[in-house]
């Protein structure tokens, strides 16, 4: 059967962790979002944001798109914008991994690097300035309802179906918060008893893809009422778990995935039984030039 590349977004594998949980009454499943064609969970949101904007007539091939990104969303937007023949400029901190920058450029995007001293917040300010002064259009993943709706339409239903409705806890790192917002909304409609667990870094920890946002930068799509519990993980814990996932589970992923699984394992230790699902949001090859696997 032949597919367009966009038809391969979603329906990612759900695999059982075999070595991380000691309690036989608890099952931990890992949802492998690196199997999306752009290599991360962000393919879902990027496709829904671009396709919905085109369908509404908000953007067309004359539109100059711009977006601030820490990496995975940018790669997804670059891939999908290229397919729709849209021009896009992606703005990210200069300390982003080379793999990310080169992949975005390979897909045809213009990449602008801002000072690492001001992080992704500085990239967001740069993009906002171009929108206000130069007529650019921002999809704005942080405030765009099409971000979380992608997960309401796809991620949530897939998890519910693949666990035969037995899921008790959903664990997701929180960056733009689109994944956790959309998946939470869907799963809570199926059963209010399902617990939604968000993952944040401890103070002073820097974990790509997971943020504890300053109040003025908190994503507008975030609704704290849709998260039952927040578990904090350290940079060291997230790094160690990413290495364990590769060595023990054969799951090659990044640090934010390590953070999510760390939180899931911590959570499991407090439970007598349950079916947990953690998001593995991307692939480890995106981090080979970083210190993650050294």
From TrEMBL:
<protein>
    <recommendedName>
        <fullName>Cysteine synthase</fullName>
        <ecNumber>2.5.1.47</ecNumber>
    </recommendedName>
</protein>
<dbReference type="InterPro" id="IPR036052">
    <property type="entry name" value="TrpB-like_PALP_sf"/>
</dbReference>
<dbReference type="InterPro" id="IPR001216">
    <property type="entry name" value="P-phosphate_BS"/>
</dbReference>
<feature type="binding site">
    <location>
        <begin position="175"/>
        <end position="179"/>
    </location>
    <ligand>
        <name>pyridoxal 5'-phosphate</name>
    </ligand>
</feature>
<keyword id="KW-0028">Amino-acid biosynthesis</keyword>
<keyword id="KW-0663">Pyridoxal phosphate</keyword>
<dbReference type="GO" id="GO:0004124">
    <property type="term" value="F:cysteine synthase activity"/>
</dbReference>
<dbReference type="InterPro" id="IPR050214">
    <property type="entry name" value="Cys_Synth/Cystath_Beta-Synth"/>
</dbReference>
<dbReference type="GO" id="GO:0006535">
    <property type="term" value="P:cysteine biosynthetic process from serine"/>
</dbReference>
<keyword id="KW-0198">Cysteine biosynthesis</keyword>
<dbReference type="Pfam" id="PF00291">
    <property type="entry name" value="PALP"/>
</dbReference>
<comment type="pathway">
    <text>Amino-acid biosynthesis; L-cysteine biosynthesis; L-cysteine from L-serine: step 2/2.</text>
</comment>
<feature type="binding site">
    <location>
        <position position="72"/>
    </location>
    <ligand>
        <name>pyridoxal 5'-phosphate</name>
    </ligand>
</feature>
<dbReference type="InterPro" id="IPR005858">
    <property type="entry name" value="CysM"/>
</dbReference>
<feature type="domain" description="Tryptophan synthase beta chain-like PALP">
    <location>
        <begin position="6"/>
        <end position="282"/>
    </location>
</feature>
<keyword id="KW-0808">Transferase</keyword>
<feature type="modified residue" description="N6-(pyridoxal phosphate)lysine">
    <location>
        <position position="42"/>
    </location>
</feature>
<feature type="binding site">
    <location>
        <position position="256"/>
    </location>
    <ligand>
        <name>pyridoxal 5'-phosphate</name>
    </ligand>
</feature>
<dbReference type="InterPro" id="IPR001926">
    <property type="entry name" value="TrpB-like_PALP"/>
</dbReference>
<dbReference type="InterPro" id="IPR005856">
    <property type="entry name" value="Cys_synth"/>
</dbReference>
<comment type="similarity">
    <text>Belongs to the cysteine synthase/cystathionine beta-synthase family.</text>
</comment>
